[in-house]
Amino acid sequence: MRTGTRNAITDVPGLGVGQASDTTLKSGVTVLVGDAPMVAGVHVMGGAPGTRETDLLRPDATVSEVDALVLSGGSAFGLDAASGVMEGLRRDGRGFDAAGHLVPIVPGAILFDLANGGDKDWAANPYAALGRAAYEARGAEVALGTAGAGTGATVAGLKGGIGSASAVLPSGVTVGALVAVNALGQVTVGDGPRFWAAPFEMNGEFGGLGVETAPFGTPRTKLDSPGNTTIAIVATDAILTKASATRMAVAAHDGMARAIVPSHTPMDGDLVFAASTGLKTLTPEDQLLLGHVAATCLARAIARGIYHATAAPNDPFPTWATRFG
What we know:
Elements: E1 15-22, E2 27-44, E3 51-52, E4 66-72, H1 81-91, E5 96-98, E6 101-103, E7 108-110, H2 127-136, E8 154-155, E9 158-159, E10 161-168, E11 174-181, E12 231-238, H3 242-259, E13 271-280, H4 284-307, H5 320-324
Parallel strand pairs: 4-7, 12-13
Antiparallel strand pairs: 1-2, 2-4, 2-13, 3-7, 5-6, 8-9, 10-11, 11-12
Helix pairs in contact: 1-2, 3-4
């Protein structure tokens, strides 16, 4: 197995990623847009989620496809980012035809970054504008680290960020992950620089430091610095139904648990969307591998988001590079 050309979710044909950040706010928005509507599913395992339009992703719900998926900072205020993405999609003639009106379908999820040292004293909610800007900036390149929804993210002891990774199955099916890492727990082991995700690293993509023996005892968290939730998207060019997309989202949570310790806590709103561009038929072997590869891509993407974070004034935690680089 190998990574895609960019080692990013945009290695999945038919997908673009847009990001917008406000460095004063210390927050931002990341959007995944399909060239055509995408089959999608979702699974939530954290105890404190914040979501928009996730009910329609149930396998029994009527609408079968979405136009975009949004990851945003800003806690509940960030749910408005999807409104800006909807505006751009509607202008471009995209959306579900409802009685002659185009209604773009844009599910979203948010993370809590209100206590990260940024200026949150806004006169009007800024997230719709950030969502629109992220949509307009969409393309094949994905900035990692301090960008988009990961601009003000943190984990226990370190600055968080946006991560992405991809893998190509032997059959040619591509899987990718995109994640905003803002976890209560740690992504590194003990007091050292090695990542929990190290067993799944490909081509030294987050330093090639190898595996550390897991320490015995209580995991470190950032309970004294509130602001949690890791939100992610896994995607593939394989043909999926809403039910099988949901199953891929469920399996991908294994990657979150492998890369963040502890994960899925009552104070995190951990969520994974899954999307399919529906270009390739799965072989029987692919059907067994798909969830596993989605999980390993997500674990790798989480480590990459931390590894590439950059410092900014008033950060509550150092970056990985500052502390260990």
